[in-house]
Hints:
The chain is of the alpha/beta class and 508 residues long. It has 13 helices and 29 strands. The protein has two domains: 22-290, Purple Acid Phosphatase, chain A, domain 2 (4-Layer Sandwich); 320-506, 5'-Nucleotidase, C-terminal domain (5'-nucleotidase,  domain 2, Alpha-Beta Complex), CATH 3.90.780.10. The strands form eight sheets. It has a six-stranded mixed sheet, with helices on one face. A six-stranded mixed sheet has the order 11-12-14-15-17-16, covered by helices on one side.
Amino acid sequence: MKFIKIGVFLLSLLLLASCTKDDQKIDFTFLQLNDVYEIAPIQGGDFGGLARVETVHQDLLKENKNTLLMMAGDFLNPSLIGTLKVEGERVRGKQMISVMNAMNFDLVAFGNHEFDVPQKDLQKRLNESNFPWISANVKEKTATGSDFFHKEIGGKKVPLSPSFIKEFTDADGTKIKIGFISVCIPSNPKEYVVYEDMYAQARAAYDDLKDRVDIVFGLTHVKIAQDKRIAKLLPEVPLIMGGHEHTSRSVSVGNTVITKADANAKTVYIHRVSFDKKTKKVTLISELKEINSSIKTDEKVGTIVAQWQQVLKTKIKEIVSNPTGIIYTAKTPLDGRDTPIRSVQTNLGKIITQSMSFAFDDRVDCALVNGGSIRIDDALEGAITAVDIFRVLPYGGAILKVKIKGSLLKRILDYGVLAGGTGAYLQRFNAKKVGVEWYIKNKILASNTTYNIAFSEYLLKGFDIPFLSEKNNDVLSVYHPKPWELGADIRKAVVAYLTLETKKSAHK
Length: 508
């Protein structure tokens, strides 16, 4: 009887061993975000919110401990909170870092908007972050050339890497090393940034990584056409998690899948990956998940978000008395997304420029604002508050009444059209092009006529349109509004205009 018991015991051990034997197969999960500028829910609280994303993150970790949370670039800027001063310093993405640290991000890529902030502030954000950053093609300019950006830890400079390696182990002991490469679009030239060729550096990073890992993935911030080219260049990469376009998409190039989620965490991508080490076969199931009010708020992250929102509420009251009061209801979404606002005339652009004209009692011939001043990168729907308008135009600035020659006005308008796709594209009111002719207030623009134009203050600085400044001889006069006048702050002008439009509608 004793020998039978021992035999049964040994058989049990063998069965247990066989059940836990390494099968060379492993499952892991990626949670992908990109282009997130708002930590709190948007569109009236219906969509987005990083505390909701964290709930999804925690659920995925319970499902599979081998889960990575990743950001495919663009998170430090732009945002309204980022423009505010706290204890004498501009926030400039500090709120994003504090929330992302609380969420335990595993990996982030540089996006072009990371370089909106000054070099010293970017360095602070790098130092504050508890997560790794990667990019193969963006480097910091140095006295002798360029080098990878770095973190300052314990007084020492720790260089960032062009790639990242993560090791996973599952319950039966299967181990895998996965690698990530990243590149960033060179669309934001700054004196302190060097952009190397994205394709050459993507290839170099992959070649350096491939023999050290079992499989390589992409985490990029470039245009979809550029992602497609990278996919053709690196056909062994099964998944490229990208950003930049702000609208969700999933496309395939050969055996490579390219995914992008919607901006501001309106959606996230969940990638469930199975990998067979023997066959090198990858099975990928990608889910685009909407982040909406049905998802509970994570308590820990929600507390940090609430603290920053309180900062916003406190500071914004220094500028506008009732920041959360509804001033307008948009029956049609007002399009302030980056790509349209910098390429075509949008309904939001029209409202802003109409407001600029309104600030001068419509005693101007037309109104112009550069698309790059509109930084919300979102569509406003339903109930709109003053805070929403400040999110649209976080930098504010005055509206100037400028008397110029028609010849210069034509040159400006033509330049704005040619600048399509950039921040210099002009949103307009009372100026339209029909064929080869420009019309101002439905009359053909005459080169020898003098016009009164409402310009955003930024445009007169000559940054977007080099020849447009007060020094131009064809700029005949410039009126700068007094601090108490509506034109002193473009945001207040938009709020006043929409408030009046709402009152008019109520009396119809």
